[in-house]
Hints:
Blueprint: E1 8-14, H1 21-29, E2 36-42, H2 49-54, E3 63-67, H3 73-83, E4 88-91, E5 97-98, H4 103-114, E6 118-125, E7 129-132, H5 140-143, E8 151-154, H6 156-161, H7 172-181, E9 188-197, H8 203-206, H9 210-224, H10 230-246
Parallel strand pairs: 1-2, 1-4, 2-3, 6-9
Antiparallel strand pairs: 4-8, 5-9, 6-7, 6-8
Helix pairs in contact: 7-9
Protein name: Glycosyltransferase
InterPro entries: Glyco_trans_2-like (IPR001173), Nucleotide-diphossugar_trans (IPR029044)
Pfam family, one: Glycos_transf_2
Amino acid sequence: MQEGSPFFSIIIPTYNASSTLATAIESILSQTYTSYEILIMDGESSDTTVEVAKSFLINNSVISITSQSDDGIYDAMNHGIKKTNGIYLYFLGADDYLIDNNVLEDIHQQLILTSTDVIYGNVQSPSLGSNYMGECDDQLLFHKNIAHQSIFFHKRVFELTGNFNLKYRTHADWAHNINWFFNPEISNQYLNRIIAHYADDGYSSRTKDHHFRKDLFSIYYLNAINRNSLLKVVFNITKGLFLRLTR
C-alpha cells in the first residue's frame, strides 16, 4: 500500500438509488475507524442518485463518483475494483447500510491480528432474519450464499480468482464465493458479528439467475474437489439439493 492510502475501499454500485443512497453513505461516514475511501459506481442513473452522492463531496474528500454505462451491478463492482487504492475491499449495496458505527474498527482490529485474506460476518435482513447466515462450511455453501454485504476481501483475492463473472446476472457473487472459499491459497475467517443491514428486496431477489442455477453443480464440484473426496462432494451436493427441496 502506498503511503497515505486507505485501509478499506468501499464500493457502492448505484442505479436510480436516490431514495436510499444517503443512508448507505452516512453509515460509512459515521464510522469510528476512518481509513477508508468510498467509490460510488453509478450506472448512469436517470434520477437524482448522482446529485445525492455529490452532496457529500463538499466535506468529504474520501468519496469519488463515477457515472458511466455498465452491464449491471457486477460490472459496476468490477469497474470499482480497478479504481481502488485500499488493502481490503468491501461492497455495499446502495440500499444497504453498516449496522453500527464500530463495524470498520472491529474488522480492522481483527484483520491486524490475523492478516486473513477474507473475513466475513453476518447480515441483518427483513426476510433472512437478524443473524444471517453464521459460519459457512463446505456443504452449506452449495445451497446458501454468503451475503457480499458481510465480506471484506484482501485485494489480492481478485488477483487469484479474477473479477465477478458477468455471465451471472444476480449470483456472480455466489460463484465468486465458491471460488475463494475452496481456494487453498486464500485464507478466510468467520467473525460472529453483524456487519450490515441487507435490504433483500433488490434486483437479485426479484430476478432468477438461470445461468448460475445451470452451472452451480459444475462450479461447486470444480472448486470443492480441491479439498474434498469425490464421495464427499457428491454427498454435499445431494444434501444441499434435499435442503433446497424441503425448505
